[in-house]
């Protein structure tokens, strides 16, 4: 059976008044629109046309959560646990209420995720930059006392991963407010010397004095063009900074924060689960930008995602149920075994376990989400 899904955008402060509105062809919103959730997660299950929510159909068993995400300003730097870490954290915090602000773990699941750019430019921080590149950046910055302390932390480990862990600990737990401000001021003064320094200085303008700005200085600046994506595995530091995207993840709300936020940061727990091995995060989808069906391969069984260009000829797709079709441009119509539903841009057609094949018609673009291969 097919179901039409909608949801109310969540009004997080970092959201945009224009990005989702422009996608859906409406006037700018009165307040920020940050995320639209299409899933059965208890935090915000999607709405059905009959007034129920999706969990009434699925029983809350959907393994993935699909979202539209619109960032006007940077999100918090964050990292997600592995399943084993989530299970252990959930058990350890069992005495706390699920909504207790002291909680790190809202459920016992991991949260790998994939973000695909819908805007022409989508900027993010993804993973820790190889140390040679960070040292080269610091060479462009005036060696103020705070910068010297940061360099000492980066130079003191037995290997690159240990050095970066020490630098994170220094920035988030050991540095004084004056030292953090000193580093931020030095970055701003050198912003013209390198694009990455200008990028971090721009983040600092939104979060003055935040230790997360120093963390951002250690991370890879990733720029996606429309249709390109990055996969973010457990343990990988990341933060979306600006743009509109389609996001899919395992059905979890487990987040450990590492700066750029007024919310609680549990530094010991963050350092316990973060992977500080540096490296470049691959961009997916660049090689098949013109493909009618664009795959985004991910190494997890929770979800799979592909972009489909819908044209005059019907396009039949075999899917692993339960699946979703999210319309992102033009007109999209979805036909299942016994019914057809139109999907206005910004909405989803959900197909239950009785729909192994979906046929898409119209003239537009859609993203098809489904469980991954085990």
TrEMBL record:
Belongs to the mannose-6-phosphate isomerase type 1 family. Its EC number is 5.3.1.8. Residues 3-131 form the Phosphomannose isomerase type I catalytic domain. SUPFAM superfamilies: RmlC-like cupins. The active site is at 257. One of its GO terms (molecular function) is mannose-6-phosphate isomerase activity. It is an enzyme of class 5 (isomerase). GO terms for biological process: carbohydrate metabolic process; GDP-mannose biosynthetic process. This is mannose-6-phosphate isomerase. The keyword Zinc applies. It holds the Pfam family PMI_typeI_cat. Keywords: Isomerase, Metal-binding, Zinc. It catalyses: D-mannose 6-phosphate = D-fructose 6-phosphate. The keyword Transmembrane helix does not apply.
